Amino acid sequence: TVGDFVMLSVKDTGSGMSPETRERMFEPFFTTKPEGQGSGLGLSTVYGLVRQNRGFIEVESEPGVGSTFKVYFPRAAGSVVEKPSDAPVTLSGGTETILLAEDADMVRTLTKRILEKQGYRVIDANTPLAACRLADEHGSEINLLLTDVVMPGMSGRELCTHLQQRRPGLKVLYMSGYAYTEMAQDEIDEAAFLSKPFTVAELLSKVRETLAG
User: Fold this and answer.
1) Among 97, 105, 155, 150, which Cα is nearest to 125's?
2) Omega within 30 of 0 (cis) for the link into 63
3) Reduced to 3 states, what is the DSSP secondary structure of residue 163?
4) 41 contacts 150 by C-beta, under 8 angstroms
5) In what order do the strands lie in the sheet with 56-62?
6) pLDDT tens profile 102-151
7) CA-closest candidate to residue 194, choices 185, 205, 28
8) Pairing state of beta strands 171-176 and 144-148?
């Protein structure tokens, strides 16, 4: 522990970062990777999650040497309380068709796998433009738009507006690594918002709730 915080340190021996890159590394969509190979949202998502939990990050990096990330979280007061075992959770599913828009490959693949395992048909897109094309192809087959909020080129809110102009009444569920309070300016209904990271039960419950609403 460091003061009233618990510190997690992660070090690599990669290429390191220049001072200019360090200044911008937490900016959404900033990336040093070639076009099409990075969304520039990885570190900004980490930053959002850490701040959401009242923590902060320190970074030490030198070109050719590597980087060290120190993540600080407020230390919890009091003693550890054993949580009683939860009752078994019933995972709800369905047969509806879901259009999934998520630019993070790992999140999109895992989310699709979870939903398909519970019986849903999932059409997935890694960009908002690809989601628009799929919506044109599948039209009225789509029962729900499940979309990340922050994506390059078009936000999830803009994607929803665009699709609902063609399909009034299309149901939507937003998901984001940012806290809901940071999404309020986008006029997103909290009932249609799923915070990342989420559990399998949380995802399935929220999808079922949105489809039934």
Assistant:
1) 105
2) no
3) helix
4) yes
5) 5-11, 66-74, 56-62
6) 988 888 998 999 999 999 999 999 999 999 999 999 989 999 999 999 88
7) 205
8) parallel
Name the residue with tokens 């803009």. 158
Q: Looking at the DSSP assignment, which residues form a beta bridge with residue 69?
A: 10, 59
Which of these, 128, 129, 155, lies nearest to 28 by C-alpha position?
A: 155
Comparing 78 with 94, the larger pLDDT belongs to 94
Residue 70: helix, strand or coil by DSSP?
A: strand
The structural domains of the chain, ordered by start, are: 5-74 (3.30.565.10), 97-212 (3.40.50.2300)
The predicted structure's pLDDT at residue 34: 66
**pLDDT for the residue 1:** 47
User: Hey, what are 86's tokens?
Assistant: 């939860």
* pLDDT tens-digit series, residues 179-193: 666 555 556 777 889
Better-predicted residue by pLDDT, 3 or 59: 59
Residue 13: closest CA among 58, 59, 64: 64
Q: Is 200 helix (H, G, I), strand (E, B) or coil?
A: helix
Q: What distances in angstroms separate CA 162 from CA 86, 133, 170, 176, one per listed residue?
A: 41, 12, 11, 19
Task: Lowest mean pLDDT of 18-27, 76-85, 88-97, name the range.
Answer: 76-85
Please give the DSSP secondary-structure letter assigned to residue 14: S
Within 10 A of 45 (CB to CB), how many other CB atoms are there?
21
